[in-house]
Fold:
Amino acid sequence: MASLTRVLLPTSSQFPQQCATSTCTKNYTISTTSRRRFSVFSMAEPNRSTVLVTGAGGRTGQIVYKKLKERSTEYIARGLVRSEESKEKIGGADDVFIGDIRNTETILPAIQGIDALVILTSAVPKMKPGFDPSKGGRPEFYFEEGQNPEQVDWEGQQNQIDAAKAAGVKQIILVGSMGGTNINHPLNSLGNGNILVWKRKAEQYLADSGIPYTIIRAGGLQDKEGGVRELLIGKDDELLETETKTIARPDVAEVCIQALKFEEAKFKAFDLASKPEGSGTPTKDFKALFSQVTTRF
Structure:
């Protein structure tokens, strides 16, 4: 005699002959031999991953958030921004949370229940007023009060990693920058912020956390079309010594999302740039791309 199991059949909209009203749901006893025919209906939701993008109001973060929303059969997207203004800028949906990564308590609602976290938060230097390019010289930069790299790129990212670990998040994608091997890199001098130093410190913290991670150190970010260039993987800033040291923001965003799909992307860190458009073959096989990576940090 076949064993018996109980499954929840769908509403009448799917099996009208079983129910008289659209709200009717019944339990039926069926044999295991019939179970497979109904298994697809017994799931209330498709098997989607919930992914939070922090820094979703930024130029690259917006693209990642939008791409996740477009792939709603695979992902449930969430965004984290700093202000109501930023939230409205990316559509103002209920899945966009407002929080301050420097204050862990404010980001917990966004992190609870997610499967993966994509970190795109970064301190942003501002140009001091009064610079006149016609007079020559170089502009000076500063960071707003409370928004310097130590507070944002180190403490803020540390808070996100700790909160994600406590919430049982399964993977963290962290987007950083190339140049971190050179303490004298020009980016470190902007506003005396040592931004690459603090980014690198946060990357190491993530690598030591035990959470499956992917660290993407992007080259110079460009506001250009994505998906039309051959992507290049590097390590230890070697790409900075070549002519191919830039990458389009949409390409970085795509790599973030593709890293959620492949085991080959986990526990790895790499530099990312691209060949010029028209040179090489546009990258489509991301599993192969991640398989090129041999470095854990």
About this structure: The chain is about 30% helix and 20% strand. The longest helix spans residues 149-166. The mean pLDDT is 87. The radius of gyration is 23 Å.
